[in-house]
């Protein structure tokens, strides 16, 4: 066992944060995303305040800041792509409200007795409007849109508390029960299921329990290759800190820059490299949860147990309705010796899916394998930074010529699979050959590491791009599902068609962008991820239109054999389909657990059920 | 029923009628023969033909299509299943499947189509005055073909139907359909193969228990549909209606073409009802004889050649109306839960679920009803109706007057009547009589049915038989208009029978009649209330009935009226009763 109580070093802007109420515990900071998050993160958009896309005076797109590979670069083709795809124009701006209007925030309705008792515990808290608003939403389109428009908030948390350890949480939950206060756990705030929205009908005082200060790795056990970690830790910090000791978890959801370990557990998260490391349910060995009934945990760390239904599975995916995840023991692995990106171009989506299916059948999927459709391929290309030399330009041209002219691929049909291999060098090379050989039998052509890597960059900047879109009358969102292999193509085609049709019927004046990628492979099926965006000029209520279309798209997914969600969760956005998804007896089972664990609905975010 | 406010219902019915009522929205017709009469037939047959296909798919060669079918998971599954049940090796069963497919499959060839285009043009120009097509319908069809797999569902009154359909699609540069045809045609040497090469595929009349046959057949049809290689065409009525009354639909093929939608294999399927109306049916007297028990002549090439003599007669005009494409997706909205198909592998054949079955049944009836709605009716149809009410004949002037009266009534019931513009009624009547001189004749100012062949001595049996032939032939024209009057007539009979003004009593009787006739006429399952309201609406509209609140009362005009059309309904009714009596005596 090494480095017990490994505290996070101060990395990002360290600062003091003085607010009206008291912080008894001095700054115990800070992770990459710090205590008063809104200081380095956007209050009405995705990610860091310093990183954003914009069209400069020449009309060229730029990505500001220094944090990403694309940061500081000019992206010459983005404007054309953007204008052509959406019928938008860089001259038609739809700017956001510059700052939060405090008068739009309902006053905090505090439970005085609770606040008194809370003060006595010394746990920091705040009822500043900014703190409360920041924790009143996730990143659904309607949430961000409302923030940008400066709409009045119906209900936001009345109070934010920052427990710093498991025992703090125990105290808070006890006090909440004692004073009948509603608790909503808040991790990274990256929810896209309306899970963080406060139920407007909630009349009790709502307390947002921000786990961000519970961010320590408590111990690492190298013999068993597990680490015991506080659940508020953010993905990138966890990975960075483990890396310092030569380890990693390998759990890399697309939101890992901002999402928290506790959030992953609460939503059944999935990481990009699950083929090697597994999804969150495969990674956790032990979970500690504070509920109104008391603390749930197992008595040992046996790697598998036959002790009735696994209680972890009541917690995994419970979406904050049962309690707060405080500590998690999870598997770790030595950092892989070698990493290599790759990509394969296929003549069309059908061939690509057939190839991924075969790879899954032979169980030789690389750490990550994703198939982007033609729209996404073109999107990716629009994000190519300015090429510095004539030579690279020339080489790019040659490549394009080879694929489209020599090999006869139709540029409006071809799709690309992006790959990421990990392991020791020799094995990676061997593995790479195996995958490329399979791809070749489906007409796939190796298309280089660079294309592969670009695909993964898109993943991290896509949410920033949505903010850019919203600056120019374009709304966008993503959604996902999982589906058996034999239905992948039918589902993708039908969902896209349904979206196009619904948009037309609902008066969307411009052709929407619908794009999908097969983003995870399993033995029996795949996870499919959709992007959907449209230019909303001429629509009275774009968000409502958007929601109707998304609703229709979800119905189409369900009718085509897709699941309600692969990893985003249900939240409040998809509750209406729970009964159809898991049967009413199934819903009853979950309800009875909720009734036992939390009879007074202290954890009253009303997700899931 | 009676709890619902009557006026609300009326508004509702009015709205649904507005939607259904094609009067306002019916398209105009173009005569496609006109151009043929003024230009070279050969040039026409050889002209460039490049139809647009579904989402721009490349057309599929007949052989490639067969391979796709033979290698499908669906077929493999059944082959293995049959092999296990019979103990035969899978290879042998697979070979059997291949033979079945060989017997079934079309071999569409453009050269054959061109031959038909040439030959049919010649024939049509002699047989018919006009072949009229609604061009807007063609445009809608063209659009539909590009967006979704299309199923063409024409009415079936004549052997002509499917050649005519392909002819029209060829004329408008649309994708040629593949047509489900009965195996009987295969018996025709040479001609069977010609039909096959013009897009017909042949299915056995019955193959109830034959799993392998069913698998090959359904997979063959579905493969064409899913890929959108060609519009699929078949006759919902299953066979030619010998009485010109729409037959209750058969569901087998409709089930097959709808299933890919439920299984998510296609986004939607468009059903296009096509109404083909003949002013004079080629098989006119043949049908009457068949109905009287003379066996149907076997389809044979020599028979066809003998039938050449029909070429010397005038068969008036044909109207072909391509209806609004019906989206299966929209129809199924809220009726069928597609996710029920999620838990079973899609390649394993299954009996359709109850929900699906009733949906398909419903759809079939609705389509046939749409066919009826868009059937063009000629003045002769009204005249035939009147003649049948007066079998002893009637004064020409009376016939003319009554035809005019009936025309007004039919029009107010939204009948699709093709009445020559600006022609005096007398002229319309006389030219109809001229065209149908084989059925009716005028002598001494009286119009009566022609009874049998006028030549040679006849036995009393033969005379009776001949008379029956002309009555039945005439009835087959009368039957074309039945759908227009059916609902109001049933209501009138119900009112007459109950002799009550209580709406619910009348409704009960109506409902009884409705159920009784549900196999004789196209009455959509579950539509009793709607049909009743529609009937009320129409009778009120024509002033035959008043409906104060919950009551329903006849007005004076209705008295005259009820003497006429409900007789037809009554005739069917008593016919049914006497059949039952005869059957029980046997």
UniProtKB/TrEMBL annotation, chain A:
Domain FAD-binding PCMH-type, first and last residues per copy: 153-335
Function: Catalyzes the exchange of an acyl for a long-chain alkyl group and the formation of the ether bond in the biosynthesis of ether phospholipids. Catalyzes the exchange of the acyl chain in acyl-dihydroxyacetonephosphate (acyl-DHAP) for a long chain fatty alcohol, yielding the first ether linked intermediate, i.e. alkyl-dihydroxyacetonephosphate (alkyl-DHAP), in the pathway of ether lipid biosynthesis.
Gene3D superfamilies, sorted: 3.30.160.650, 3.30.300.330, 3.30.465.10, 3.30.70.3450, Uridine Diphospho-n-acetylenolpyruvylglucosamine Reductase, domain 2, Vanillyl-alcohol Oxidase, Chain A, domain 4
Signal peptide: none
UniProt protein name: Alkylglycerone-phosphate synthase
Class in the EC hierarchy, top level: transferase
Ranges in coiled-coil conformation: none
Enzyme Commission (EC) number: 2.5.1.26
Cofactor(s) listed: FAD
Entry's localization field: Peroxisome membrane
Gene Ontology terms: biological process: ether lipid biosynthetic process
Family designation: Belongs to the FAD-binding oxidoreductase/transferase type 4 family.
PROSITE patterns noted in UniProt: FAD_PCMH
One GO MF term: alkylglycerone-phosphate synthase activity
Catalytic activity, as annotated: hexadecan-1-ol + 1-hexadecanoylglycerone 3-phosphate = 1-O-hexadecylglycerone 3-phosphate + hexadecanoate + H(+); a long chain fatty alcohol + a 1-acylglycerone 3-phosphate = a 1-O-alkylglycerone 3-phosphate + a long-chain fatty acid + H(+); 1-hexadecanoylglycerone 3-phosphate + a long-chain fatty acid = a 1-acylglycerone 3-phosphate + hexadecanoate
Active site: 529
Pathway info: Glycerolipid metabolism; ether lipid biosynthesis; Lipid metabolism
Automatic annotation (TrEMBL), chain B:
Pfam families on file: Acyltransferase (PF01553), GPAT_C (PF19277)
Highest rank taxon of the organism: Eukaryota
UniProt keyword list: Acyltransferase, Membrane, Signal, Transferase
Any single GO BP term: ether lipid biosynthetic process
Main location group: membrane
Pathway per the UniProt entry: Phospholipid metabolism
Signal peptide: 1-18
Subcellular localization(s) per the UniProt record: Membrane
GO MF annotations in UniProt: glycerol-3-phosphate O-acyltransferase activity; glycerone-phosphate O-acyltransferase activity
Occurrences of domain Phospholipid/glycerol acyltransferase (ranges): 150-279
Cellular component, GO annotation: mitochondrial membrane; peroxisomal membrane
Family: Belongs to the GPAT/DAPAT family.
Protein name as catalogued: Glyceronephosphate O-acyltransferase
Organism this protein belongs to: Hucho hucho
Species classification: Eukaryota, Metazoa, Chordata, Craniata, Vertebrata
């Amino acid at each position: 066992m090494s480095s017990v109580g490994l505290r996070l070093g101060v990395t990002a802007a360290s600062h003091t944060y003085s607010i009206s109420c008291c912080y008894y515990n001095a700054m115990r900071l800070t992770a990459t995303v710090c205590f008063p998050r809104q200081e380095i993160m956007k209050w009405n958009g995705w990610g860091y305040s310093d990183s954003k896309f914009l069209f400069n005076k020449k009309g060229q797109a730029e990505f500001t800041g220094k944090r990403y590979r694309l940061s500081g670069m000019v992206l010459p083709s983005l404007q054309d792509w953007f204008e052509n795809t959406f019928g938008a124009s860089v001259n038609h701006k739809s700017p956001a409200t510059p700052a939060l209007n405090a008068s739009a925030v309902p006053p905090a309705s505090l439970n005085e007795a609770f606040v008194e008792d809370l003060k006595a515990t010394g746990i920091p808290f705040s009822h500043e409007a900014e703190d409360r608003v920041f924790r009143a939403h996730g990143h659904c389109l309607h949430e961000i849109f409302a923030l940008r428009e400066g709409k009045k908030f119906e209900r936001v948390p009345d109070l934010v508390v920052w427990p710093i350890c498991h025992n703090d949480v125990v105290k808070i939950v006890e006090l909440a029960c004692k004073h009948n206060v509603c608790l909503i756990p808040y991790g990274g705030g990256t929810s896209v299921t309306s899970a963080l929205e406060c139920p407007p009908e909630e009349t009790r005082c709502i307390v947002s329990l921000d786990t961000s200060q519970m961010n320590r790795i408590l111990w690492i056990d190298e013999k068993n290759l597990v680490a015991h970690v506080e659940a508020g830790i953010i993905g990138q910090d966890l990975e960075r800190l483990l890396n310092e000791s030569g380890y990693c978890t390998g759990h890399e959801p697309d939101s890992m820059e901002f999402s928290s370990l506790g959030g992953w557990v609460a939503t059944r998260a999935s990481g990009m490299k699950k083929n090697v490391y597994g999804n969150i349910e495969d990674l956790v060995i032990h979970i500690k949860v504070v509920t109104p009934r008391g603390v749930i945990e197992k008595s040992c760390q046996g790697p598998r147990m036959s002790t009735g239904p696994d209680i972890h599975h009541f917690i995994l995916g419970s979406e904050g309705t049962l309690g707060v995840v405080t500590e998690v023991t999870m598997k770790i692995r030595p950092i892989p010796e070698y990493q290599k990106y790759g990509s394969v171009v296929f003549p069309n989506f059908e061939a690509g899916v057939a190839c991924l299916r075969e790879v899954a059948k032979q169980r030789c999927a690389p750490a990550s394998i994703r198939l982007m459709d033609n729209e996404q391929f073109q999107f990716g290309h629009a994000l190519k930074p300015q090429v510095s030399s004539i030579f690279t330009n020339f080489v790019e041209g040659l490549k394009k010529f080879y694929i489209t002219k020599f090999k006869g691929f139709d540029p409006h049909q071809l799709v690309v699979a992006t790959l990421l291999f990990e392991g020791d060098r020799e094995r990676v090379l061997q593995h790479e050959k195996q995958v490329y050989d399979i791809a070749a039998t489906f007409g796939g052509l190796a298309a280089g590491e660079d294309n592969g890597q670009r695909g993964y960059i898109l993943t991290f900047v896509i949410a920033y791009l949505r903010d850019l879109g919203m600056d120019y009358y374009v709304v966008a969102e993503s959604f996902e599902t999982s589906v058996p292999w034999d239905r992948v193509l039918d589902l993708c085609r039908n969902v896209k068609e349904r979206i196009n049709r619904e948009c037309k019927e609902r008066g969307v004046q411009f052709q929407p962008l619908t794009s999908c990628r097969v983003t995870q492979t399993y033995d029996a099926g795949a996870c499919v991820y959709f992007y959907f965006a449209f230019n909303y000029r001429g629509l009275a209520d774009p968000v409502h239109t958007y929601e109707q279309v998304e609703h229709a798209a979800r119905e189409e997914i369900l009718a085509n054999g897709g699941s309600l969600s692969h990893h985003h969760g249900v939240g409040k956005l998809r509750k209406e389909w729970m009964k159809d998804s898991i049967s009413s007896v199934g819903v009853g089972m979950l309800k009875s657990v909720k009734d036992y664990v939390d009879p007074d609905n202290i954890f009253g975010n009303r997700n899931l059920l | 029923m009676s709890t619902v406010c009557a006026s609300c219902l009326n508004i509702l019915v009015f709205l649904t009628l507005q939607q259904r009522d094609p009067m306002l929205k019916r398209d105009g017709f173009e005569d496609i023969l006109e151009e043929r009469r003024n230009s070279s037939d050969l040039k026409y047959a050889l002209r460039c033909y490049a139809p647009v296909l579904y989402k721009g798919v490349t057309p599929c060669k007949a052989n490639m299509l067969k391979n796709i079918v033979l290698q499908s998971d669906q077929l493999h599954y059944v082959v293995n299943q049959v092999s296990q049940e019979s103990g035969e090796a899978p290879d042998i069963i697979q070979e059997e499947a291949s033979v079945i497919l060989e017997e079934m499959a079309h071999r569409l060839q453009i050269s054959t189509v061109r031959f038909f285009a040439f030959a049919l043009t010649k024939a049509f120009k002699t047989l018919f005055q006009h072949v009229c097509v609604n061009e807007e319908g063609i445009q809608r069809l063209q659009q539909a073909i590009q967006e979704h797999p299309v199923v063409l569902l024409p009415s079936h009154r004549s052997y002509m139907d499917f050649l005519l359909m392909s002819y029209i699609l060829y004329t408008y540069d649309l994708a040629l359909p593949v047509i489900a045809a009965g195996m009987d045609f295969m018996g025709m040497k040479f001609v069977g193969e010609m039909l096959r090469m013009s897009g017909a595929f042949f299915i056995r009349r019955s193959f109830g228990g034959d799993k392998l046959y069913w698998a090959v057949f359904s997979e063959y049809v579905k493969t064409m549909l899913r890929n959108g290689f060609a519009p699929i065409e078949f006759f919902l009525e299953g066979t030619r209606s010998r009485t010109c009354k729409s037959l209750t639909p058969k569901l087998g093929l409709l089930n097959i073409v709808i299933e890919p939608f439920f299984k998510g294999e296609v986004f939607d399927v468009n059903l296009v009802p096509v109404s083909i109306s003949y002013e004079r049916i080629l098989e006119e007297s043949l049908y009457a004889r068949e109905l009287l028990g003379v066996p149907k002549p076997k389809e044979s090439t020599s028979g066809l050649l003998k039938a050449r003599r029909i070429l010397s007669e005038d068969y008036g005009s044909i109207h072909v109306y391509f209806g609004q494409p019906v989206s299966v997706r929209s129809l199924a909205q809220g009726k069928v839960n597609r996710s029920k198909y999620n838990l079973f592998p899609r390649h394993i054949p299954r009996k359709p679920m109850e929900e699906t079955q009733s949906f398909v049944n419903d759809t079939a009836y609705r389509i046939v009803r749409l066919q009826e709605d868009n059937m063009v009716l000629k003045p002769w149809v009204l005249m035939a109706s009147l003649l049948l009410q007066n079998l002893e004949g009637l004064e020409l002037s009376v016939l003319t007057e009554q035809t005019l009266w009936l025309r007004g009534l039919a029009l107010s019931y939204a009948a699709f009547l093709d009445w020559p513009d600006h022609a005096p009624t007398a002229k319309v009547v006389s030219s109809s009589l001229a065209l149908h001189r084989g059925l009716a004749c005028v002598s001494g100012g009286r119009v009566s049915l022609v009874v049998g062949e006028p030549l040679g001595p006849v036995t009393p049996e033969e005379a009776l038989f001949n008379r029956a032939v002309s009555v039945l032939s005439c009835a087959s024209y009368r039957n074309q208009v039945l759908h227009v009057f059916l609902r109001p007539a049933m209501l009138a009979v119900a009112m007459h029978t109950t002799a009550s003004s209580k709406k619910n009593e009348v409704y009960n009787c109506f409902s009884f009649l409705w159920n009784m006739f549900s196999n004789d006429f196209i009455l959509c399952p579950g539509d009793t209330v709607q049909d009743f309201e529609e009937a009320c609406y129409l009778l009120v509209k024509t002033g035959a009935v008043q409906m104060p609140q919950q009551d329903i009362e006849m007005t004076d005009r209705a008295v005259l009226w009820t003497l006429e059309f409900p007789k037809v309904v009554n005739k069917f009714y008593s016919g049914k009763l006497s059949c039952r009596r005869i059957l029980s005596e046997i």
